[in-house]
Amino acid sequence: MLIWLILVPVIAAACIGLLKTPGRLTALISAAITLILGTYAVLAPECCSECLSTFCGTPVQLTLELPLSRIMVLLSILVTFAAVAGMKAPDANAERSWAISALLISTGAMGAFMSDNIIAFYGFHELALIPTFIMIGCYGRGDRRHIAWTATIYLGLASMVLLAGLLILCAEMHAWSFTGLAASVAAGIMPGSTCLIAGLLLVGFGTLVSLFPFHTWAAPAYASAPTPIAMLHAGVLKKFGLYGLFTLAMAFGPQCKELFGCWNNWLLLLLLGNVLWVGYVTISQTRLDDMLGNSSVMHMGYIFLAFAAYISCAGNNELAFNGAALLMLAHGLTIALLFLLTGQIEAQTRTLELDCMGGLGSKLPALGFLFGLAGMASVGLPLLANFAGEFSIFVSCFAGWTPAPACADCWLGSVANFFGGLGPVQLTLIAALWGLVISAIYMLRAFRNIFEGPVGAASERATKLTTLDIVAACFLAVFIVLFGIVPPTCL
Amino acid sequence: MNIVSTYTWCQFTPAFALVGLAALLILADALLPRLPKRIYAFVGAMGTFVAAYFLATGEQTDIFGFIAAIATGLSILLAFDYTKISCESIAGSGNEEGTGEFYALPLVACAGILCLTQARDLVMLFVSLEVITLTSYVLAGYFRRNQGSIEAGIKYLVLGAMSTGVLVYGTAWYFGMVGSFNLGSDVVVSAMKGGVAGSPVLAFGFMMATALLFAGSFFKIGAAPMHVWIPDVYQGAPTPTTAFLAVASKTAGFVVLCSLALPFAPFVVPGSVVGKLLVWCFALVAAATLLIGNLGAMRQTNMKRLLGYSSIGQAGFILVFFLTLNGPVVFMVSKYLLAYALATIAAFFAVAMVRTQRGSEEIAAFRGLGKTNPRTAFLITVCFASLAGVPLTLGFLVKMYSFVAIITAMESWCCICWLLPIMVITAATGFYYYFKVIRAMYWEKAAPGAQPLQVPLCTGIVLTICVLALIYLGTMPLLLQA
């Protein structure tokens, strides 16, 4: 049955492209079908694994039995539905291309998240990247060609680095699937060149997830992309890198520290760059779309923090894993909702300059409420989905830590002693907590500038939201609240 | 020991049939001047397809011969669509006078390739190779009213003659050192174990022979440093000829390289000095070819030149397979060549179509195709995506095999691990320059007043079939039960 989650959007895209059926309606039907099928599959994953064929001696299997698959498929179907429902294209031709691209991106993401075979996992993701580039180049805001070109080169190079890393790993482990890797590890096989492999994987996956300093493609690309593309890429597709890292770490079990351990301190340093450096960059943005693009890059730092905590405990850290899974889901929903509302704000006011708006809340209270909700979720307000994820991650950084002073046989140990025996993960966490303040600053300021105060010139133009606009936004908002109260777990 | 190998006549049946067909067509051209020349193209192309059918299904399947025959047939079909330009550039007055041989000569070259795939000694190898190159010289300079074509013909003739000289010289050394023209593992092994290993003079001579023979074959495949002729000749030669050179002639080059390199397979084991030397030689040539081809392609604005550099770059990826000589080299090389051939031939069809209707071979002439001809633009996109190595196309699979080959080779030869980062970087540059074409089609606005292209029937069919094959073969291992 899982194959239909991939085939339905492809068939719908083919219908739109070849038979010229109405773009939005066809896509909406396809998204609704995958929503129903996907919900069933996520709730009853045992009955759904299926083997399609064998390739390189390994079965090409679509499965939901990998620990993160279910939660990522859930994210994909939710965001796809909202993206398609809230789509507002300038004309019928654009609507068709937007719908085709949105469906293809969703297919690629879903295929990657359900693949057990590593080559298929990689291939599906690459497939989803192509429509992203083309859509940014054709329909983006601002200097679209330059931005799309930068993203193409960054992600193309990253993909090649990633492919090299995955191939070396698979060749040395003689296994071409995640379950096969786990079996090889259980049989006592470990790759020889762990440092090289882990480095390639971290740079490859890291660039795809916009890890500092490989992040410069991301914010402009999200700011420029058409709304449904930004929602799907920032919300769903970008999580591919983190999904890959966590799934590989899970496959290696306690040995994941041997694989990724040698880069862990570097990773901590880089993710601080994401949280603090990009955080300050976000504060200084004057356009809403730029701000959201940067904020999405910034929040990736917390998920990397969970990964570092998971590795430093040698996989014995369920809280970090669950927290990361939850934050990926929550961040995907939140950023998708924020980009959706940004599209609506732009349609109403015809500008995204924060200084030109103001008082929009009195004209469109529903929009103001939804934006406030999404903004607060993104900041990490309790009872909304992101809070549960971020809080789990913060707590998980102290997993397995005891306040005994570290031995002072090297300068690092002396430094640790000075900080009361805190290790690198804990110190990074303390520094990264500042990021909460940073996100509160920019998000609240944006909310104030757009919705509060006297009605600005741009806000005067605002008229009325359509029902479908509100339905699409409420659809995501409901799940943000729901997962905040009842966080799903995957272990 | 036999000085040359023995062959049976039936090994060469397809080749003789093609030569006979070519002779018939040339005779008909002389005796029936009023017959429309397009009939020759059609008959010639059908002839190669029938030959390809027998090569694929006959007693001895010949995968290289199959690829070459299909590629020749398609390049003749390309000439069929290119008649307007051919007439302008050959007779000058727009009539078809003197264009007949343009459709018949590729058949002779294809016969040469089919003989080449059967060759098991250096004499046969050399003679078949000369049949191909002599025909190619004529074809490259065939547009006598086009300065670029004449220049391409001369350049190809001079450099090609030099490479032939190198090959003959190498053959002479080989015969002198081994006492036979035979190319077989047993000959090489006994030579290395007997006289050559014992005497430094003979060892030097044998190395000299091998180096010269390899250099000669590197010219045909466009491996660095014997690649210099490719961009100019590809740009200047008539587009159907360029397509033939880029695919069929390159296949011939790899046939030669396979026949020369495979006898050395028993030596490519850890600890062998000869093996280490060979692996280093192939690794250096592959690295240089990858870098020159891919970095050179980045600055190109002319499509045929871009495809020329692309063909150098792709040859670099194929050369990587030769690092694992005791593995399934022939299978991998033929698979890569098939992926390259399908995408490149389709790209040349697109170039010819744009040249005929918009009068330019620049990338800029492709602007706005995404708006004016969305379906054709999509087909061209898939071809270039396959060349770049985008997943779910055949191009990705074969590029992945190339990466697997270097990783496998690294297990035995740690000293060549520097090739991997070069492959990563050059594969990523591929994304840059192949996507330049896609970018032009979708992101750039068409020149004012640009009309939608009229897609000729042949071009439409060939593009569709190539794209379907690329996607089918690229996803088949994923979707079908293997």
Please provide a written account of the structure.
The complex is a heterodimer of chains A (491) and B (482). A two-stranded antiparallel sheet of chain A has the order 1-2. Chain A is an all-alpha fold. In chain B, α1 packs antiparallel against α5. Chain B has 482 residues and is mostly helical. The model of chain B has no long low-confidence stretch (mean pLDDT 87). In chain B, 75% of the residues lie in helices and 0% in strands. The interface between A and B is medium-sized, with 35 and 32 residues.
**Gap from first CA to last CA of chain B:** 44 Å
Mean pLDDT of chain B: 87
* Proportion in β-strands of chain B: under 5%
Q: What kind of sheet is the major sheet of chain B?
A: none
Q: What is the C-alpha radius of gyration of chain B, as a whole number of Å?
A: 22 Å
Biggest β-sheet: strands ordered side by side in the sheet of chain A: 1-2
Report helical residue fraction of chain B: over 70%
The rough form of chain B would be described as: globular
- How large is the count of helical segments of chain B? 19
DSSP, total strands of chain A: 2
Unreliable sequence segments of chain A: none
The residue ranges of chain B in which pLDDT falls below 50 over 5 or more consecutive positions are none
Shape of chain A: globular
In short:
The complex is a heterodimer of chains A (491) and B (482). With 491 residues, chain A is an all-alpha fold. Helices cover 73% and strands 2% of the residues of chain A.
Lay out the secondary structure:
The complex is a heterodimer of chains A (491) and B (482).
Chain A lengths: L1 H18 L3 H21 L6 E6 L2 E5 L6 H17 L6 H23 L3 H22 L4 H30 L4 H9 L7 H15 L9 H7 L2 H11 L1 H14 L3 H5 L3 H20 L4 H25 L5 H32 L10 H4 L1 H15 L5 H12 L14 H8 L5 H9 L1 H18 L5 H4 L6 H19 L6
Antiparallel strand pairs in A: 1-2
Helix pairs in contact in A: 1-2, 1-4, 2-3, 2-4, 3-4, 3-10, 3-15, 3-23, 4-5, 4-10, 5-6, 6-8, 6-9, 7-11, 8-11, 9-10, 9-14, 10-15, 11-14, 13-14, 13-20, 13-21, 14-15, 14-18, 14-20, 14-21, 15-17, 15-18, 15-23, 17-21, 17-23, 18-23
Chain B lengths: L12 H19 L6 H20 L5 H19 L1 H8 L9 H19 L3 H19 L6 H32 L6 H14 L1 H22 L7 H8 L2 H23 L11 H25 L5 H18 L8 H30 L10 H4 L1 H15 L5 H19 L6 H24 L14 H23 L3
